[in-house]
């Protein structure tokens, strides 16, 4: 239990509406909200949120979706929406845990965190493993390429047409899945650990392009790198908050407050700050985005 207490004090020092958690291992040493011997959560998840005063969220530190401020606080489009909804539900704070995309769903189902709030785009395989809220963010996808786009990359079809092309992706990310679903061979996929490494892979010639949401690439744009227009041969993407399958009541309550938030100027202000459109998020449903193959 001591490791959990230490982690919590470190978290609270950051202050503000959202605090950055120490590494995930700090939460594994002891959790007072699981059944002895099973590790399964006890009681209502929302009740636990209210009792402890916060919800643990998984993030990726990929602006503008998620971002860690210099003071350790967590922000970004999705954490800001999640924090606003939870506040309406009587939960005053979120605590972020940085984790790779491919670890988010396993970690959620293992109760290492309670919500995924990282812009983890909905698609069939993910919607079969977790419960999503209604959409909070809708995005487009692009390539980061050398200035002038020498390989004339405009979409996934162009990648499939040239076996010599190498495309950098974040393992477990939507883009990784989109390439694999389209039949792009693993030999053409370059796995990188973070956004900056993807840009550097293009600069160094280890990859011909870095595949990521348009707004994320715009945030990473640097000299010698060009961001293509939105790719048209990948389906519309978007995300909501991700919850465990067992938390159906929590998702229903969350959706109710999310719907109320979407009807206010606050929702548009939150998303607009990060370059997203509130109207775009209101224009699609969970069912539509969960139908995306992959």
Task: Set down the secondary structure blueprint.
Blueprint: H1 2-13, E1 18-20, H2 25-28, H3 45-52, E2 55-59, E3 67-68, E4 74-75, H4 77-88, E5 94-98, H5 101-109, E6 115-116, H6 124-127, E7 131-132, E8 137-139, E9 141-146, H7 156-161, E10 167-169, H8 174-181, E11 189-191, H9 195-203, E12 209-213, H10 214-220, E13 225-227, E14 237-239, E15 242-243, H11 248-262, H12 265-273, H13 278-282, H14 286-290
Parallel strand pairs: 1-5, 2-5, 2-6, 10-11, 10-12
Antiparallel strand pairs: 3-4, 7-15, 8-14, 9-12, 9-13
Question: Which terms summarize this structure?
Answer:
2 domains; 294 residues; five-stranded mixed beta sheet; four-stranded parallel beta sheet; D-Maltodextrin-Binding Protein, domain 2; single chain; alpha/beta
In short:
This protein has 294 residues and is α/β, with parallel strands linked by helices. Helix content is 38%, strand content 17%.
What this model shows, in words?
The protein is built from 14 helices and 15 strands. The protein is an alpha/beta fold and 294 residues long. The chain folds into two domains: 45-138 and 237-286, D-Maltodextrin-Binding Protein, domain 2; 141-227, 3-Layer(aba) Sandwich (D-Maltodextrin-Binding Protein, domain 2). A five-stranded mixed sheet has the order 11-10-12-9-13, with helices on both faces. The protein has a four-stranded parallel sheet with strand order 1-5-2-6, sandwiched between helices. Helix 4 (77-88) crosses helix 11 (248-262) and helix 4 (77-88) runs antiparallel to helix 12 (265-273). The radius of gyration is 19 Å and the shape is globular.
């Amino acid at each position: 239990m001591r490791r959990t207490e230490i982690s919590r004090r470190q978290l609270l020092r950051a202050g503000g509406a959202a605090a950055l958690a120490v590494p995930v291992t700090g939460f594994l040493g002891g959790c007072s909200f699981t059944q002895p011997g099973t590790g399964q959560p006890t009681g209502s998840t929302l009740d636990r949120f209210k009792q402890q005063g916060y919800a643990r969220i998984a993030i990726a530190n990929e602006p503008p979706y998620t971002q860690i401020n210099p003071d350790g606080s967590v922000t970004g489009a999705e954490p800001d929406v999640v924090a606003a909804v939870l506040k309406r539900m009587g939960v005053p704070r979120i605590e972020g845990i940085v984790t790779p995309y491919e670890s988010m769903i396993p970690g959620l189902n293992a109760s290492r965190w309670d919500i995924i709030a990282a812009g983890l785009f909905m698609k069939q395989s993910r919607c079969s493993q977790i419960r999503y809220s209604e959409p909070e963010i809708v995005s487009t996808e692009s390539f980061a390429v050398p200035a002038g786009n020498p390989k004339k990359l405009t979409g996934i079809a162009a990648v499939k047409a040239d076996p010599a092309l190498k495309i950098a992706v974040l393992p477990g990310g939507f883009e990784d899945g989109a390439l694999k679903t389209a039949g792009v061979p693993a030999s053409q996929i370059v796995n990188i650990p973070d956004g900056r490494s993807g840009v550097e892979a293009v600069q160094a010639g280890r990859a011909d392009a870095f595949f990521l949401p348009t707004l994320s690439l715009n945030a990473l744009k640097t000299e010698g790198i060009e961001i293509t227009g939105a790719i048209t041969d990948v389906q519309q993407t978007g995300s909501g908050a991700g919850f465990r399958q067992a938390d159906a009541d929590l998702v229903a309550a969350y959706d109710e407050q999310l719907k109320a938030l979407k009807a206010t100027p606050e929702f548009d202000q939150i998303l607009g700050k990060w370059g997203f459109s509130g109207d775009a998020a209101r224009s699609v449903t969970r069912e539509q985005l969960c139908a995306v193959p992959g």
